[in-house]
Amino acid sequence: MSIALIGVAIVLTATLGGIVIVRRNSPQQPIQVKAVLFGLYFWGLVFLQLALFGLFLG
């Protein structure tokens, strides 16, 4: 797999995961709070996936 395809897969997975987590865990929150939580979940998922890919593919 090329590095670009792995990067696209990580970004797509983190985006979908962030959206799912925000919708499940904060249904009553204002949009601004949801946006901040999405950013935190997104980057958390990105770093987790990068660490896992680095461990298993590196």
Layout of SSEs?
Elements: H1 3-25, H2 31-57
Task: Describe the protein's architecture and organization.
The protein is mainly α and 58 residues long. The chain has two helices and no strands.
Unreliable spans = none
**Percent in helix:** over 70%
What's the overall geometry? elongated
Give the terminus-to-terminus CA distance.
13 Å
* Rg over alpha carbons: 13 Å
- Largest sheet composition: none
Taken in chain order, the helices and strands follow as HH
Number of helices: 2
Which structural class fits the helix and strand makeup?
A: mainly alpha
How much of the sequence lies in strands comes to: under 5%
Q: List how many beta strands DSSP finds.
A: 0
Compute the average pLDDT. Answer: 93
